[in-house]
């Protein structure tokens, strides 16, 4: 298991760095070339959401990313309570990206929207638009986009921030039969 940790400042320019790093690590992990755009876009959405939240609530705090290639066993076993101890889905044979911010979760009326992300991404449409937002869409529409891009998604809002976990299976299509190989 390989883990790359990246810390970025709450600046929009650093989202590009996170996307490039995630794409490079995903390619090295063995993600299919056809899936790399999904990884790039999902990481961009998660990081953009975190940057926006940090700029509004805690601009001096960094945003944490963990890029996890769980193709093999963790060296020396996983640390209890670490992100590698809680890898999405089956754990092995997956590439996972964890984006953690330190901005407080939205007001209680907005947390219901985060709860609705278990499958009803349409809950984000028609929500009031804050200054600088896109008319008719909540800034958190990016979370709904992530649901469509990542194979598995977990969103964990909390008092000390939100953790967005996204994962994709490792391996690409076999050119001879079109089946996935790992």
TrEMBL record:
<dbReference type="InterPro" id="IPR050267">
    <property type="entry name" value="Anti-sigma-factor_SerPK"/>
</dbReference>
<feature type="region of interest" description="Disordered">
    <location>
        <begin position="67"/>
        <end position="90"/>
    </location>
</feature>
<keyword id="KW-0808">Transferase</keyword>
<keyword id="KW-0723">Serine/threonine-protein kinase</keyword>
<protein>
    <submittedName>
        <fullName>Anti-sigma regulatory factor</fullName>
    </submittedName>
</protein>
<dbReference type="InterPro" id="IPR036890">
    <property type="entry name" value="HATPase_C_sf"/>
</dbReference>
<dbReference type="InterPro" id="IPR003594">
    <property type="entry name" value="HATPase_dom"/>
</dbReference>
<dbReference type="GO" id="GO:0004674">
    <property type="term" value="F:protein serine/threonine kinase activity"/>
</dbReference>
<feature type="domain" description="Histidine kinase/HSP90-like ATPase">
    <location>
        <begin position="8"/>
        <end position="168"/>
    </location>
</feature>
<dbReference type="Pfam" id="PF13581">
    <property type="entry name" value="HATPase_c_2"/>
</dbReference>
<keyword id="KW-0418">Kinase</keyword>
